[in-house]
UniProtKB/TrEMBL annotation:
Name of this chain's protein: Heavy-metal-associated domain-containing protein
Upper taxonomic lineage: Bacteria, Pseudomonadati, Bacteroidota, Flavobacteriia, Flavobacteriales
Domain HMA: 51-123
PROSITE patterns per record: HMA_2
Recorded superkingdom: Bacteria
InterPro entries in UniProt: HMA_dom (IPR006121), HMA_dom_sf (IPR036163)
Amino acid sequence: MNFLKKNNEQKMIKMNNVSKKVIFSAAVIMAIGLTSCKNGAKQENETTTEVSKEMANADISFGVRGNCGMCKNTIEKAANAVDGVDKATWDVDKKKIDVSFNDTKTDAMAIHNAVASSGYDTEKVSGDLEAYDGLPGCCKYDHEMVMNKE
Ligand SMILES: [Cu+2]
């Protein structure tokens, strides 16, 4: 009787260990998933602190579709990569980008095209579909999404 009980206890301990392991790996997987999304979300709140590298003399803002903080990174990076762009800030709620740039070096259409080639729809240019396909799952925004919201 005593032996049986002990045996049972050991079984329970073993099972416990197994389920603990399962729970632990599930937690690790979830944490990894959450971290990548949190990273994005965290950057959402940071204001763009690009050091002024251009003499901006013009500002535009236009609608750009996107979902999250990772979208924000991609969109702003694409706009900032345009020669003549001083600062680009995309608003995740308004689905809108504000760009300051030097109009002797670039123009609005070049900025639309740069953002679109990173996979994101702007008011004037549809996002490059190949780039869109390469976006992380959570960034695959809805092409019908309302943009440039107030
Ligand atoms: Cu995203």
